[in-house]
Amino acid sequence: MDKQQIYTIPASPGQRRDLRTLIDRSVAGESLAPPLSMEELMEVSDRLIRGNNLDPALQRWIMVEINNALWKDTVASIPAEKRMLLLPGCLSHSVRCTAETDELGLLCRQCRNCSIAPLEAKAEQLGIMSMVAEGFTSVIGLIESQVIDTVIGVGCLESLEKVFPLLINQAVLGIAIPLNKAGCRDTSVDTEYVEQMLALQSGKRANLLDHELVKNQVKE
Predict the structure, then answer these.
(1) Which of 81-85, 111-115, 187-191 shows the lowest mean pLDDT across its residues?
(2) Contact, 84 vs 172, CB < 8 A?
(3) First-to-final CA distance of the chain
(4) Which residues is 129 bridged to in the sheet?
(5) Half-sphere exposure of 36 toward its Cβ, with a 13 Å CA cutoff?
(6) Contact predicate 151/128, CB 8 Å
(7) Distance of CA 195 to the CA centre of its chain
(8) Are the beta carbons of 179 and 155 closer than 8 angstroms?
(9) Angstrom distance (rounded) from CA 177 to CA 65
(10) Count of Cβ atoms closer than 10 Å to residue 40 Cβ
(11) From the CA atom positions of the chain, what is the Rg in Å?
């Protein structure tokens, strides 16, 4: 596969929604438990693609959504105040954006020229912290200091694939939502899906292990 094929995204919101439903059913039927390695996610996605005659070029996108399906129940059990919404700056409108940036990332001025302001408003409504920055590395320190326990992050497929080993090595649990197009400028995401992931809720409460202990075990 060439690079263009590797990062192919389902073309329409309806196709993405139908595929996510299929993935949820498939994962439930396989009795899988997170975390899965990149190799294991590839094996599961291979079975799903072959079994449902799907386009192999969608494999990377499918792998991300399989991982999301596996973590949903755990994320749902984590209190809102222990969650973080992480958005990329490329969601902003490249011409109309009035935001400034600092060492942490983009400071949205709620101009409503892109999807950042509505998504941050939804997070705030639910009691979830939000940040507009590039890459998951910006929140690793918050997880290590136990300020947050999970990340709901948005990014392009290429970035998500690069950061996946880091998340595994750092024992970070969370949900990664692919952008609908790459390009690092004027990108878009399924905002309804992001809001659904923010609103995940369970009557259970997560019994999370000590982060440093888990990270050291992963390294060993």
Answers:
(1) 111-115
(2) no
(3) 33
(4) 84
(5) 22
(6) no
(7) 12
(8) yes
(9) 8
(10) 15
(11) 17
**Three-state secondary structure call for residue 160:** helix
Instruction: Give the Cα separation of 86 and 132 in Å (integer).
Output: 6
Sequence-ordered list of residues with C-beta below 8 angstroms from that of 169, at least 6 positions apart, any chain: 215, 218, 219
Residue labelled with tokens 């596996």 = 70
86 phi, psi to nearest 5 deg: -115, 120
Token pair 């998951």 is found at: 136
C-alpha–C-alpha distance, residues 176 and 95, integer Å: 27
Contacts of 70 (CB under 8 A, 6+ apart): 27, 32, 33, 34, 35, 36
Residues 6+ apart with CB under 8 A from 210: none
Gap between the Cα atoms of 197 and 121, Å rounded: 14
> Of the given ranges (6-10, 167-171, 173-177, 182-186), which has the lowest mean pLDDT?
167-171
DSSP-based three-state secondary structure for 120: helix
Q: What is the pTM of this model?
A: 0.83
Q: How far apart are CA 130 and CA 138, in angstroms?
A: 12
The neighbouring-strand residues paired with 153 are 86, 176
Per the omega criterion (within 30 degrees of 0), is the bond before 35 cis? yes
pLDDT tens for residues 161-180? 887 777 766 667 889 999 99
